[in-house]
Amino acid sequence: MSDLLAAIKSVLTDGDVLSGRDATERLAGIWRSDTIQAEIIVRPTSTAEVAAVMKLCHARNQHVVVHGGLTGLVHAGDTRSSDVVISTERMNRIEELDTLGRTMTLQSGVPLQLVHEAAEAAGLMFPVDLGARGSCQIGGNVSTNAGGLRVIRYGMTRDNVLGLEAVLSDGSVVSSMNHMLKNNSGYDLKHLFIGSEGTLGIVTRLVLRLRSALPARHTALVAFPEFSAVLKFLSYVDGALSGNLSAYEVMWPDFFLYQRDKVGGAATQIGDEHPFYAIVESLGADQEREADVFEAALMRAHEEGLLADALVAKSGAESAAIWRIRDEVEHLFKLGQVMFFDVSLTTAPMADYVAEVRARVNALPFDGHFFAYGHLGDGNLHFSVALDGDLEVHRHAIEEAVYVPLRALGGSVSAEHGIGLEKQPWLGISRSDTELALMRRLKHALDPKGLLNRDKIFTYDGEQLPSR
Ligand SMILES: Cc1cc2nc3c(=O)[nH]c(=O)nc-3n(C[C@H](O)[C@H](O)[C@H](O)COP(=O)(O)OP(=O)(O)OC[C@H]3O[C@@H](n4cnc5c(N)ncnc54)[C@H](O)[C@@H]3O)c2cc1C
Question: Is 3.30.950.30 the CATH number for 216-327?
């Protein structure tokens, strides 16, 4: 390794490589207490440097894992002690913001929050948004095809990327920095790298699609009398707001009441007795006119019995307080160790599925807490299971309770977090053998030595990994 370390230092302009304790003292991820296991952490500043490092690693059959902001929740960035880490933290330059073409060209290590701030300063918006915005990087968002809070209106990260540059495992550079909305000239290669969790290439630069900034925001916390009303209201309010609906976050009462207790604020004005709650938000251009439309839509839904109660935020501060209930999931750690799930399925069987999973988890031999919430407009449910004790003992049984019922419903074991190591044993629930075989063929074609993020999503040689 010392030979590789010296060679890598020689191809970096400022030789920025962490080794020894400097490398192994870093935490392995957000909400993790263990540290990174790796020989060295390389911190390049350009595509050319990443390519040079990969050429050296390829020649020596050296395994490599890419690290962005390390906010991923499925152990996709985990390393072994013999791995080299390439961290994109210094590839943080916004190269161009084209206000007329509405694109941003940037390096992959720019934190998502800085993408938002740069777009906003130019009167534009990058719509992908998630609770980890301050720590995650745009390259990590792209590599996990992150979803988040506005998918219902703007789609996943995949729908907001126009062009991409990636370094392959042999150090060659695929530059597909398209700036156009339409481009059907052959295979759209960027999609190979979006959502492939660093297994097919290292994303180094991107062209993002920006949208018009929408300064008018209206937020409400609503309560429903039953699940059918949750679904009917979604369809109704989408039409009533003329396409301005940008978030629909549903919370089962266990989650809502626990979080509200921790966060407080105006939400305490809404009753405790309702079976479902949701945050509804519209984004538009005219604050006053749309306030009338928003309130009239809620009023009518209340008169028609779809809503049991509603609280409309009267200021930005009230809106932020409502969102903290949904965003600040770290309060769950006050209950002990926590497992997070993100699954997707069609909305019709959702309430029965949640009830089944809750019953299965409650039947397990521990005294824990089960929470359900999610981006319901996208068919995306989150569960959290918290336990004051050793959760690892029960991990497999809890995962079985969540994932097995999805098979009959045609659901997915990952709506947005990805597979990493964590969900690998369950991938067969959502993907056929033919699909998995094709994924493996793509991996072998792009990374024949299996050097990049080896054994993440599926094992390189087809061996089945046990549940973590
Ligand atoms: C509070 C909180 C809220 C969250 N909310 C959401 C949410 O609403 N929706 C959602 O989808 N996710 C959510 N997440 C999960 C996480 O934030 C996302 O998966 C995020 O996109 C990961 O970005 P990152 O930069 O932290 O990537 P990392 O965690 O560093 O890496 C994730 C994976 O991408 C690979 N990778 C990273 N950068 C590159 C690159 N440049 N090239 C190739 N591969 C790369 C890594 O190898 C790894 O496999 C949340 C996490 C937290 C902690």
Answer: no
